[in-house]
Amino acid sequence: MATALFTHDDSLRHLTPPGHPERVERAQAMAAALAAPRFDGLVRRASPLAAEAEVLRAHPARHLEAIRANIPLTGFNPVDGDTFMSEGSFDAALRAVGGCGAAVDAVLAGEVTNAFVACRPPGHHAERSRSMGFCLFGNIAIAAKRALDLHGLHRVAIVDFDVHHGNGTQDILWDDPRVLFISSHQWPLYPGTGRASETGAHGNVLNIPLRAGTDGAAMRAAYDLQVWPELEEFEPELILVSAGFDAHEADPLANLDWDTEDFAWLTRRLCEIAQDHCGGRLVSALEGGYDLDALAASAAAHVAELMEHSR
Ligand SMILES: [Zn+2]
């Protein structure tokens, strides 16, 4: 068994205005890092274009149409104050959704143990009817719905360690008792949601707000105390990961102080729990991470751990 890597060059056609942190160079830095010889064992696959019905697992048709209608012929059209679309953004977003769905299919079919989807735009801020925070569609939430509704799973867990709260994933899955959504994030910080008191319609949401300056040791203590016990008790049949690397100490958009080894530790523990409960089945998708060197090193450490646990 192996680890799959899903990518597509359409992710390079989602352009953002000069100076925007969520930029093409992120995908290029990841690709360069994952081209190193130690990643030769990856099963490399192209992210397919998602069918529109796939997007409708999480978003109403009128929202999909509004996003399609926002595609500019040239330049950029704003979606919100910090989210923009270029001519290639819609297809890139459908590749992000499609890559996550294909990764779920490959893992559940037993073709690979786990998978990483190096997609952009990211997805965890996209609510049911509102795209925001650099995100167009809810990539990982849609993947969860696919695993449940198409593949017939009963319990899917999502762990979101991006430095920002996964408000979109929470919004989409708030009232779905088949999903356990766990998000750790700096708080207060954009988008402002993610208080510990937000627990989902069925107690199926766990938010772990962390103060600015929280370092790796404090993060590990919080995960040991709250996240791992909750995740194990849920007995997931599949673990999905919103892998943002913007909690890195070098990241320009936030103020947590994790390092590359902290992301490796998180990945190791997630893989161990996946092995204990669901045959190692885990799908991880890229969210944030805006310092190019920290992003590349952290994502490489993440993928290396996935490979270590797919032998
Ligand atoms: Zn983020």
Number of strands: 10
Low-pLDDT segments: none
What small-molecule ligands were found? zinc ion
Percent of residues in β-strands: 15-25%
Cα separation of the termini: 6 Å
Strand order of the largest sheet: 2-1-5-10-9-6-7-8
How is the main sheet built?
8 strands, parallel
Count of folded domains:
1
> Helix count, per DSSP?
9
CATH superfamily: Histone deacetylase domain
Helix content: 25-40%
User: Compute the gyration radius: what is it?
Assistant: 17 Å
Q: Which architecture per CATH?
A: 3-Layer(aba) Sandwich
Structural class: alpha/beta
Query: What is the ordering of alpha helices and beta strands?
Result: EHEHHEEHEHEHEEHEHEH
Shape: globular
CATH fold label: Arginase, Chain A
Question: Any chance you could write out the topology, listing elements then pairs?
Answer:
Blueprint: E1 3-7, H1 24-33, E2 43-46, H2 52-55, H3 61-69, E3 77-80, E4 83-85, H4 89-108, E5 114-117, H5 139-150, E6 156-160, H6 167-173, E7 179-186, E8 205-210, H7 216-234, E9 238-243, H8 260-278, E10 282-286, H9 292-308
Parallel strand pairs: 1-2, 1-5, 5-10, 6-7, 6-9, 7-8, 9-10
Antiparallel strand pairs: 3-4
Helix pairs in contact: 1-9, 4-5, 7-8, 8-9
The protein binds zinc ion.
Zinc ion is lined by residues 162-164, 244, 246, 287-288.
Account of the 3D structure:
- The chain has one domain (3-308): 3-Layer(aba) Sandwich (Arginase, Chain A).
- The mean pLDDT is 98.
- Helix content is 38%, strand content 16%.
- The protein has helices spanning 24-33, 52-55, 61-69, 89-108, 139-150, 167-173, 216-234, 260-278, 292-308, and strands at 3-7, 43-46, 77-80, 83-85, 114-117, 156-160, 179-186, 205-210, 238-243, 282-286.
- It has an eight-stranded parallel sheet with strand order 2-1-5-10-9-6-7-8, with helices on both faces. A two-stranded antiparallel ribbon has the order 3-4.
- The chain has nine helices and ten strands.
- It is α/β, with parallel strands linked by helices.
- The structure holds zinc ion.
- Residues 162-164, 244, 246, 287-288 line the site of zinc ion (ZN).
- Zinc ion binds next to loops.
